[in-house]
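**Paired protein data**
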Amino acid sequence: MDTIPMSDTSHRTATVGSVLTRPPAEPDVAERTPLPDPAERDIVFELAGVEVRYSGVTAIEDVNLKVAAREITAFIGPSGCGKTTVLRTLNRLHDITAGAQVRGTITYHGEDLYGPRVDVAEVRRRIGMVFQKPNPFPKSIHDNVAYGPRINGRKRGEIGDLVEEALRKAALFDEVKDKLKQSALGLSGGQQQRLCIARALAVEPDVILMDEPCSALDPIATARIEDLMQELKANYTLVIVTHNMQQAARVAERTAFFSLDVSNGKRTGVLVEYDDTEKLFTRPDDQRTEDYVTGRFG
């Protein structure tokens, strides 16, 4: 796999034996600590001066934000403003995008996510991704969820329990327990999306990224996914991209508003404001945020 060309890697360091260079034992979910007070947030991601270019053209620039553990952080903004572009930097999906360059610094639990010793496979195990359109494999329901544990070397005797646990966490097990050997493609859209969430959970991640996970779903299925997000944040950190401002207001503790800078003939994404969700929607600091959340543009 080709690596991303970097503008300056002289400042980058990696810690030997860190969470990304060597797969350590994951703590049992039940033993994870509860969400700390806001003033004592455990920071999972910190982005500083992040810029993403495609074939030399800047898509988004100067992104600075922190994502806290066991919270839901939402990215909102008009189409083309770079929300998904930033989301994909968090588990190095731009590594497989031809011509993509990621600049600036992104740390995960204090470690440089793009450091030279970082194991990219371990990044994507710890930081899972659920895409906009459900994308189950053309396999059985069981084999969809078992796929990750298998390629990560889990023993055959463990996989059945891991599959059931992941399906239960995704609020899907009771609906499919009698048809685990049937094709996942026969599930409804909402069930397929929850199956994809279960597939991400089966490899025991720390973070779940969601790129518009409800955009293709009906209101009932959307409500089930939103309820599931609220359950998952007790043990996982979630970062979601959504075009639905009401969804961000319902589920997220923190919200980042992105927009477009069209000055000087350019069309570049920028992070306008990042704050507690309630404040951003009711008392924003930037007029551009006020205009967007009140429907004056976008």
The chain has ten helices and ten strands.
